[in-house]
Amino acid sequence: MEVFLAESLGFCYGVKRAIKLAREQAAPDGTSCTLGPIIHNPQMVSRLAEEGVGMVNALPDMEKGTVIIRSHGVGPLVYDEAKERGLSLVDATCPHVKKAQSTAHELFQEGYSVVIVGEKLHPEVRSIFEWAGGDAVIVDSVEGAEAVAPCARLGIVAQTTFSGAKFKEIVLHLLDKSNDVRIVRTICTATDQRQEAAIKLARQVDLMLVIGGKNSANTTRLAQLCAKECQTYHIETVAELQDEWFDKIKKIGITAGASTPDWIIKEVYQKCKNRT
């Protein structure tokens, strides 16, 4: 049995940056916390907690100290509230998410009706929505796009981890909603690279293991794409591997989401290699 790693996998620049910023603020006395999980990987969040970076779900949960904005970003009111509460603030928002936020804000200010192509409940999408004046339309399907009302000016942005192919498909169904359509493809390069590499590898193996948080949108998307090509399992850790998955399997492919730490990828890789 052969084991292959995707050409592009694991931590992206934005995640590495967020983790670095969080670790720089570590405080054993519990006065340094992220607002929500800094990335969608429970194992990394737990490790940061051990290092002195806690987590709160809302600013009122913090009486003092440093609040770290998660990589997915937040709306403009959060910055104002943190200042009003006298909290120090470290912004670990991914630069690509920042671009999507600022683009949505600019479109809103210029009088465009903003459509965000992404998952309605994802924290990144919620942050973009708030930067768009809280008046944008969020769609994640062709059906949703078809339901968008016609308007004078239409501006389109995307969740940074959204499927490039699906974004293109949805946009095609939005083009006839206005005579003035501005499209800003805010999907990040790392997302494109990981998706392309995963699909390429999935077409060459018998089974794909996609590693990452079950709450990670980009990891879930990788698993969905790979599942179209071969047998695929989405796992968070090596403990989830099951012997029966490997019966009659000759080639295993491994990829991982942008928020999956290297040590977890290595554990899964070694476990698979030891089966050969």
TrEMBL record:
[4Fe-4S] cluster binds at C12, C94, C188. Its cofactor is [4Fe-4S] cluster. GO terms for biological process: dimethylallyl diphosphate biosynthetic process; isopentenyl diphosphate biosynthetic process, methylerythritol 4-phosphate pathway; terpenoid biosynthetic process. Isopentenyl diphosphate binds at H40, H72, H122, S216, N218, S259. Pathway: Isoprenoid biosynthesis; dimethylallyl diphosphate biosynthesis; dimethylallyl diphosphate from (2E)-4-hydroxy-3-methylbutenyl diphosphate: step 1/1; Isoprenoid biosynthesis; isopentenyl diphosphate biosynthesis via DXP pathway; isopentenyl diphosphate from 1-deoxy-D-xylulose 5-phosphate: step 6/6. Keywords: 4Fe-4S, Iron, Iron-sulfur, Isoprene biosynthesis, Metal-binding, Oxidoreductase. InterPro entries: LytB/IspH (IPR003451). Binds 1 [4Fe-4S] cluster per subunit. Dimethylallyl diphosphate binds at H40, H72, H122, S216, N218, S259. One of its GO terms (molecular function) is metal ion binding. It catalyses: dimethylallyl diphosphate + 2 oxidized [2Fe-2S]-[ferredoxin] + H2O = (2E)-4-hydroxy-3-methylbut-2-enyl diphosphate + 2 reduced [2Fe-2S]-[ferredoxin] + 2 H(+); isopentenyl diphosphate + 2 oxidized [2Fe-2S]-[ferredoxin] + H2O = (2E)-4-hydroxy-3-methylbut-2-enyl diphosphate + 2 reduced [2Fe-2S]-[ferredoxin] + 2 H(+). Gene3D superfamilies: 3.40.50.11270, 4-hydroxy-3-methylbut-2-enyl diphosphate reductase, catalytic domain. It is an enzyme of class 1 (oxidoreductase). (2E)-4-hydroxy-3-methylbut-2-enyl diphosphate binds at H40, H72, H122, T160, S216, N218, S259. Its EC number is 1.17.7.4. Belongs to the IspH family. Catalyzes the conversion of 1-hydroxy-2-methyl-2-(E)-butenyl 4-diphosphate (HMBPP) into a mixture of isopentenyl diphosphate (IPP) and dimethylallyl diphosphate (DMAPP). Acts in the terminal step of the DOXP/MEP pathway for isoprenoid precursor biosynthesis. This is 4-hydroxy-3-methylbut-2-enyl diphosphate reductase. It comes from Selenomonas sputigena (strain ATCC 35185 / DSM 20758 / CCUG 44933 / VPI D19B-28).
